[in-house]
Design a protein that fits this description.
With about 525 residues, this protein is of the alpha+beta class. The chain has helices at about 15-25, 60-80, 100-110, 120-125, 145-160, 210-215, 280-295, 335-340, 355-370, 395-405, 420-430, 435-440, 455-465, 470-490, 495-510; strands at about 1-5, 10, 30-35, 50, 85, 90, 115-120, 135-140, 145, 165, 170-175, 180-190, 195-200, 200-205, 225-235, 240-245, 255-260, 260-265, 270, 305-315, 330-335, 345-350, 410-415, 420. A hairpin with an 8-residue loop joins strand 16 (about 240-245) and strand 17. It binds flavin-adenine dinucleotide.
Length: about 525
């Protein structure tokens, strides 16, 4: 058993936990973050990719609209490399009530969300694929954000302030004595060892799993309701900017350009278990129909991947239990000293990735108050350092880098222009990673072939570099392909069927991946 000591343990390595870790470390606390898997593998790795301008909420949720507007500006300043300043449009398509646009503009004015109406001709000039029948168009400051880059940036900043991060360390128990939290127990899955972290405070940032964490403390679960949404990635940037329907928030009303693809989403259905999120065929069809309303011919484009995530919504007594679509998107901090008589434990839920920094500020403020400390939050003003510069992301950056100084570096993943050097550099930093862990940082296998051509190259290079033996490489390869398959089968139609048949022939037919020597135990993490 390993013993560690900290002032505060942050549970959950999604956007919220990453923001909390950074904030706590910057205020001088000895902070340790634990996650049961890799960073940003929960909801934060399964979201839509939109850095909200606030426009979506100007009518339905004015408080959230204002928060999004100000956080959008802050994050664009402090985390530019994680954000592509695409801009956004709200458009009314035929059948949408054009008068909603007036409520939208009035709401934007009242909530401080920058919005201005532009002509139809100008909207169509900017977005040539847009439905030519649109009746109104309003421009906003929506942007595209990479959740993984956002989280890694915040965590690296926290580490520079002395914070520690323990991934693949699920929390198994929280000790409480004399009415106060004393320690967090977790299991180091890779080292197969128990770890006990003595601490003064625990901040529960486990998103849709937050209720399970309070149960580990022996308390009733906090009322977090997992609101499942599905998204579908199409193989091109069908739009240059974020395109939203100019209607009251509904299903499938946003199309976001994310790196080399565009993502249509989403749905909102109450689930009971955030570990089991289906991608029903009916909802995929609903998304394709919704895309067609915005972009005629959308269905003819190739869908490359589908996924589902669970919003960590706080139970909202204003709406029915199952009505997650209309539950508030606002953030909420649960004080367990008031609710359960346990000191040193706070839970946070609700909110959005766009407001992750503000959520962190709120919960760390609440912790400081309970500890009787006066320590100011500085996360809004201090820029986060990124290895590759400080300018906003642009989709052509990998091509530009390649033409600049990487022409001799062998390409491993053509779809995403990921080179051998990029892969081996990260593998050296994170030798215990799975190919999926590396994918989240490098975008390995995320393009149209979904790993068909690059996964075996990556596995082979890992062996050549002596990072893994042949058996583990095969296990990693199989795990990667199995995980890709989860998001492939729901969208098997058109060209993607041909691609999948080809990939299957490469792996099952030629490489016979089913019968290659693998480790005694299947690789699961
Ligand atoms: C479909 C969908 C689309 C969305 N789109 C957008 C969008 O476009 N823009 C936007 O701003 N927001 C969006 N959101 C909301 C946003 O994604 C979430 O609010 C945000 O990612 C939540 O982050 P989190 O850190 O609170 O939770 P998570 O990212 O889920 O993090 C919780 C972490 O806790 C860990 N954990 C769980 N149990 C344990 C345990 N026992 N021990 C240790 N760790 C544990 C998990 O592994 C996980 O990493 C969307 C949400 C959904 C579902």
């Amino acid at each position: 058993m390993r013993k560690l000591v900290a002032d505060v343990v942050v549970i959950g390595g999604g956007s919220t936990g990453a923001g909390v870790l950074r904030d706590a470390a910057m205020r001088g606390y000895r902070a340790i973050l634990v996650d049961r898997s890799d960073l940003a593998q929960g909801t934060t790795g399964r979201f839509h990719g939109l850095l909200h301008s606030g426009g979506r909420y100007v009518v339905s949720d004015p408080g959230s609209a204002s928060e999004c507007a100000s956080e959008n500006a802050i994050l664009s300043r402090i985390q530019a490399p994680a954000i592509e300043r695409t801009g956004g449009l709200f458009v009314a398509v035929p059948g949408d009530d054009p008068a909603y646009g007036d409520r939208f503009l009035a709401g934007a004015l009242a909530t401080g969300v920058a919005a201005s109406e532009i002509s139809i001709a100008e909207a169509l000039r900017r977005e040539p694929r847009l439905n030519p029948g649109i009746t109104r168009a309003i421009e906003v400051a929506d942007a595209s954000v990479d959740g993984w880059q956002l989280v890694w940036g915040a965590v690296n900043s926290a580490k520079a302030y002395g914070a520690q991060v323990l991934t693949y360390h699920p929390v198994t128990k929280i000790d409480v004595a004399d009415g106060s939290v004393r320690a967090v127990h977790c299991h180091d899955q890779r080292g197969d060892e128990e770890v006990v972290i003595e601490c003064r405070f625990v901040l529960n940032c486990a998103g849709p799993w937050a209720g399970r964490i309070t149960e580990l403390t022996g308390l009733p679960p906090v009322p977090v309701v997992p609101g499942r949404g599905i998204m579908v990635a199409m193989n091109h940037r069908l739009v240059n900017s974020v395109v939203n329907r100019l209607i009251y928030p509904a299903d499938g009303d946003i199309l976001v350009p994310v790196h080399t693809v565009s993502v249509i989403g989403t749905t909102d259905v109450k689930e009971t278990d955030p570990d089991f999120l289906p991608i029903p065929a009916k909802e995929v069809q609903q998304m394709l129909d919704a895309g067609e309303a915005l972009i005629p011919g959308f269905r003819k484009a190739r869908a490359v991947h589908a996924w589902a995530g669970a919003r960590p919504l706080m139970k909202d007594d204003r709406v029915a239990d199952a009505d997650t679509r209309h539950m508030s998107r606002g953030m909420a901090v649960v004080d367990h000293s008031g609710r359960d008589g346990v000191h040193g434990l706070l839970t946070i839920g609700g909110g959005k990735l766009t407001t992750y920094r503000l959520m962190a500020q709120h919960i760390v403020d609440a912790m400081c108050e309970q500890l009787g400390d006066e320590r100011e939050c500085r996360t809004a003003s201090e820029e986060i350092a990124y290895e590759h510069g400080s300018t906003h992301y642009v989709v052509t950056h990998r091509l530009a880098d390649r033409e600049h100084d990487r022409l001799d570096d062998q390409i491993v993943c053509e779809c995403e222009l990921m080179s051998r050097g990029m892969f081996t550099d990260l593998l050296k930093q994170r030798p215990e990673s799975t190919l999926d862990d590396l994918r989240r940082q490098l975008r390995l296998g995320m393009g149209p072939c979904q790993g068909g051509f690059c996964t075996m190259r990556a596995a082979g290079i890992a062996v050549e570099e002596d990072a893994v033996d042949v058996e583990r490489a095969t296990g990693l390869l199989r795990l990667f392909l199995a995980n890709r398959w989860i998001g492939l089968w729901p969208i098997l139609y058109g060209d993607q069927v041909r691609q999948t048949a080809l990939d299957n022939w490469i792996y099952a037919g030629t490489l016979d991946v089913e019968h290659l020597p693998v480790p005694a135990e299947e690789v699961v993490r």
